[in-house]
Design goal:
2 strands, two-stranded antiparallel ribbon, about 230 residues, Arc Repressor Mutant, subunit A, 8 helices, mainly alpha
């Protein structure tokens, strides 16, 4: 057998988690996009007019996160269906974010950053799926339609009294993401989770894990930094 054919065969049997280019250029970049999206949502003023958009975006971001994790466990030779689902979840997030932007929920600069990063990931996925497999999301952004719509503050200031519901939602989102990671891996350490969830500190992750143990969602094996967490 031709050595080159052997290399191709071996590569097709390799899980995508071991594909350095995929892990760094697609998976890690996607996780950063998800982290940025939740950061933006948690610093966006919520009212009856905007809560539907915020909920839709959060739901789409969760799906992107779940599909991204799922891709790591498939072998390159059998990854097409899972990668297509992942790509479609990114396109859905892109579309939902753009729609919300046209209402004035986000300013055009914030939207441009998010959709540009999504487009870069989709371009990277074309390496694995082919150029014709993914429709382009690179279309002009529509400007907001209402100039008097309050814009989100990206400041981390805590002197506003209505931040408490956002903090609660942030906690729920973070715990859902932690649960998804542990479900995908079977077991995970704090370090494993911190490598994927990059929008909060290791101490915050540890606090969430402890709360999830108290809530009978997780169980812990081992002590201190050697502790591993799994679902009950």
């Amino acid at each position: 057998m031709n050595p080159k054919d052997m290399y191709i065969s071996d590569t097709s049997l390799q899980k995508l988690v071991h594909d350095e280019n995929y892990y760094r250029s697609i998976f890690k970049k996607t996780e950063k996009i998800v982290a940025v999206v939740f950061y933006i949502l948690n610093h966006t003023d919520t009212d009856k007019r905007t809560e539907t958009h915020i909920g839709n975006i959060a739901g789409k971001a969760h799906l992107v996160h779940e599909h991204a994790l799922r891709t790591l466990e498939v072998r390159a030779g059998n990854a097409r269906e899972v990668l297509e689902q992942f790509a479609q979840s990114l396109i859905a997030l892109d579309s939902t974010f753009r729609v919300a932007s046209t209402t004035g929920l986000f300013n055009p600069e914030v939207t441009s950053v998010v959709v540009t990063e999504i487009d870069l990931v989709l371009r990277g996925l074309k390496t694995y799926l082919g150029n014709d497999a993914i429709p382009s999301t690179d279309v002009p952004l529509q400007r907001k339609v209402r100039s008097n719509t309050p814009r989100q503050s990206i400041s981390t200031s805590t002197n506003q009294t209505h931040n408490s519901p956002k903090e609660e939602q942030s906690t729920v989102d973070r715990r859902e993401r932690i649960k998804t990671i542990i479900e995908a891996k079977g077991q995970a350490t704090v370090k494993d989770i911190a490598e994927i969830i990059t929008d909060c500190s290791t101490k915050t992750i540890q606090r969430e894990l402890n709360a999830m143990i108290d809530g009978h969602v997780l169980k812990r094996q081992g002590e201190r930094r050697w502790s591993k967490y799994s679902l009950i």
